[in-house]
Design brief:
This protein is mainly alpha-helical. 74% of the residues lie in helices and 0% in strands. The chain has a single domain (68-277), classed as MetI-like fold. It has helices at residues 2-12, 15-32, 34-37, 69-105, 107-121, 125-136, 140-166, 170-177, 182-218, 230-238, 246-273.
Length: 279
């Protein structure tokens, strides 16, 4: 109980983290409740009200098919957040594991893993995603896996550097001297010391994952219309940006608010999980 109380006290000291956590929770809640709170059917078309300005029955306007923008943002958030969170989760688990193993074990295993990471990082993320999607094919689950693979080398690089430093510390040497196995040292001693940084970077890259989803969906390898996502809503609105800017602005604001709130939350998570910041 004391540990939980200390953890909560550490988190609440960071006011921006509280605001970020509340905002992120609100975004998730609103998207989860989209079927109940959306004012219109996100797929219903109204030819008489296409490209309508914000106001009246359509608070955020309509798109070129007369579909309500607010309803599509609410529904699209369900898909965009699912893709972003799931892909980052996959990339975080795979990449952090690879970085820890390479950094702690060293030798040929380190060389093989990190040179492979360097090769993947040498390609733009979208190109890597195209190659993977060309092999797996389109689909929501395959899209999540693809973006997770694209993010894996980034997490591996984030975990690798601190692990090289930590493996030379006295507490690691002490663990070895009492016969602790390598797996126990990695899980019990190294992982907690880098977890805060990894989680913070994970919150930053949720927005990147959403952008990758938008780009892949735009070229027909991801989530295709009419299924709404924040990414493909922005893409659909680009051609009308001069006279109907709300089509891209409002989904963009949804991404901005979500990513900013997650970044603020990540700062609080770092304070809680990083032993170096705990009193």
């Amino acid at each position: 109980m004391r540990t939980r109380g200390r953890t909560w006290a550490t988190f609440t000291k960071n006011k921006s983290a509280l605001v970020g956590g509340f905002t992120a929770a609100l975004v998730v809640l609103v998207t989860v409740l989209a079927p109940f709170i959306a004012p219109h059917d996100p797929f219903a078309m109204d030819a008489r009200n296409y490209l309508a300005s914000p106001g009246g029955r359509h608070p955020l306007g309509t798109d070129r098919y007369g579909r309500d923008t607010l309803s599509r943002i609410l529904w699209g958030g369900r898909v965009s957040l699912a893709v972003g969170l799931s892909a980052v989760g996959i990339g975080m688990c795979l990449g952090t594991s690879l970085g820890l193993i390479a950094g702690y074990r060293g030798g040929l295993l380190d060389l093989a893993i990190m040179r492979g990471v360097d090769v993947l990082l040498s390609f733009p993320g979208l190109i890597t995603g195209l190659m993977v999607m060309a092999i797996l094919g389109p689909g929501l689950v395959k899209l999540i896996v693809t973006i997770g693979i694209v993010l894996t080398p980034r997490f591996a690089r984030v975990a690798y550097g601190p692990t090289l430093v930590l493996r030379e510390k006295d507490f690691v040497a002490a663990a070895r001297s009492i016969g602790s196995r390598g797996s126990r040292i990695v899980i019990r001693h190294l992982l907690p010391n880098i977890l805060g940084e990894v989680l913070v970077m994970g919150t930053l890259w949720i927005g990147t994952a959403i952008i990758y989803e938008a780009s892949l969906s735009f070229i027909g390898l991801g989530i295709s219309p009419p299924t709404p996502t924040w990414g493909n809503m922005i893409k659909d609105g680009v051609q009308f940006v001069t006279f109907s800017p709300w089509l891209s602005i409002f989904p963009g604001l949804a991404i901005l608010i979500t990513v900013l709130s997650l970044n603020m939350l990540g700062d609080g998570i770092r304070d809680v999980t990083d032993p170096k910041l705990q009193v």
